[in-house]
Amino acid sequence: MDSYIIESIKKKSRMPARLDLLQSGTGLILGVFIWMHLLFDSSIILGKGAFNFVSKNLELAFLSDTGQGFPIAVFFAVLAIGTLFIIHALLGVRKFPISWKQHRIIRDQMQMMNHSETNLWYIQVVTAFIMFFAGSVHLYVMFANPGTIDPYLSADRIVSGHMWPLYLVLLVCVVLHANIGLYRLCMKWGWFAGKDARKSRLKLQKLRNRLIVFYLTIGILGLLVFVVIGINHKDNVGERYAAHATAVEQVQELEETRESEGIQAVEETQELEESQELEESQELEESPAVEESPAVEESQELEETQPVEEYHE
User: Which positions, given as ranges, span the membrane (predicted)?
Assistant: First the structure.
């Protein structure tokens, strides 16, 4: 009894509430980052040039004199996101069922209540557990190789590096965890509640489902495009898109110069033929005049001899 009184008069700690707020804040930042990250990655659907343009601008190429960008910017971005990822994961572990007994209790309650929000929370737990390992691998690869955001290098990593199963599983987990998490944040903190909470909840549920379908669609399409590029690029693993594009431009310029030189040669040949034809026509016009001159001379001699013959008569 005394111990109960002592515990009851103790000042309640605000630390759990602060940790909960920190978890919500890191989750919000990571969720929005996932939205943008998937949109940027899906630019490969529009072509290798579009993806290279996006990746170079993310590397701050517009601030570089050479246009190559600064891979160090990607390094610090991955460092920041990785730090938030670890903090969010550690805060989330507080609510995980840490034993098989706790897991069985939760499963039994879910089957008994059949509550949709509890089911969503369980999906977040499962996806978070998978992401802790798959996401860590992805972050480490980008952390160790910040300058490899390139259409060909990314495709080589997915196909030749046999990373596509990891990225496929990670894609599904990330889309589900991020969109469900953002939805639950809105429910938890009363964002966009409006006057009618029930209607607002239904609208947010529809938006959540549509976002899940949208991001899964563009994510899978983007991954398939990378797989196709990686298969076609198997013989040139390690080649960068920028170097390949430069080589293609040089070949095109060479072909254009050859074509222009060929056109000039044809034009010169035509001009030469036209000049020769003109000279020949001029010679033909002058030749009758030369032939007529002896006839004129003979007629003049004949006229001169006629008066002499008449005189002798």
Answer: 21-40, 70-93, 120-144, 164-186, 207-231
Q: In which residue ranges of the chain is pLDDT below 70?
A: 1-11, 243-258, 260-267, 269, 283-313
Q: How far apart are CA 22 and CA 16, in angstroms?
A: 10
- With tokens 């993806």, the residue in question is 51
Residue 278 CA, distance from chain mean position: 61
pLDDT for position 311: 43
Buried b (16+ CB within 10 A) or exposed e, 190-217: eeeeeeeeeebbeebeeebeebbeebbe
pLDDT tens by residue, 104-128: 888 888 888 888 888 999 999 999 9
CATH numeric code, 18-239 = 1.20.1300.10
Structure tokens given for 292:
């007529």
Domain coordinates of the chain in residue numbers? 18-239, 240-313
Q: What is the DSSP string of 72-104?
A: HHHHHHHHHHHHHHHHHHHHHHTTS--SHHHHH
| Residue 98 CA neighbour count, 13 Å, CB half | 4
Q: For residue range 56-68, list pLDDT tens digits in order.
A: 888 888 887 777 7
Give the whole-angstrom CA distance, residue 186 versus residue 192: 7
Non-local (6+) Cβ contacts of 42 within 8 A are 218, 219, 221, 222
Report the alpha-carbon distance of residue 303 to residue 309 in Å, rounded.
10
What pLDDT sits at residue 112? 86
